[in-house]
Amino acid sequence: MIKSPSLFWWGILNGVIGMLFYANFREPQILFDALPAYQWIKFSANPIMLPRYASEWFPSFLHVVGMSLFTAGLLGTAGKRWLVIPICWLAVDLAFEFGQATETLGVLSYGNFEWMDVTALIVATISLPFGFSA
Q1: Calpha distance 96→89 (Å, rounded)
Q2: Which positions of the chain have pLDDT values less than 70?
Q3: Are the CB atoms for 128 and 108 separated by under 8 Å?
């Protein structure tokens, strides 16, 4: 059961924005390009180029925010969940980000480790409890 429909749907919206961003502003993705529906959300055949400072951190920020909102929508924010949920997603995303720093982890090796992503993950995590309590 969905405990907080508004948080749940805000999480879904973040996921949609993230998919649109990857489809249209990032270089071709190994995993996403394998999905046939992914091609339907592209606005052009080539990625729309943004300045690097704008395009690098945004997906990382969106992922922590979106997944935290989605999870909080499903589980609710009672007790310490408002704090635990973003921290858990930060841990997951940091594991994947640092996994990109090595070339021995298969599919993770296709990504690039970026300190800007790590910063975006931390900023998103710090900002989320304030949004949950509002």
Answers
A1: 11
A2: 28-33, 104-110, 131-134
A3: no
